[in-house]
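Repro:
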Amino acid sequence: MRTTVFAYKGIVGIKSDVKAEGLLNDPLKPGQLGFVVKADCVDIQSEALELLKQVKKSSDDIGEVDVFRSDNGLCFSWLGGPLKAFKPADITGSNSYDASELKANADVKPPEDFIAFVDGLDGHKNS
């Protein structure tokens, strides 16, 4: 499975797996805070990439999402599990975060369950 990053109504979603292609860490191991994947193994919707570019840098060495270079090349990482959703304004990247190095893939579309999740958030706000 490849990791995918997509967006719908301004919310970014990440879908991965503990056996994802290009996974550089073991997220199930104690002490691991999230996922680190080789960026060339991540498929990113163009809308999601534009939203990732809006994430602000923090003063920390780690961010809620991150893009960084290592001995493994360009890496994409995030805190949490294999499924993640966030508004770019609500999180920060690391102090070296730079999403402009990522590449978009026109074939990526948000999954139906993510669309239903986001639509459910809209309905919850209005009730």
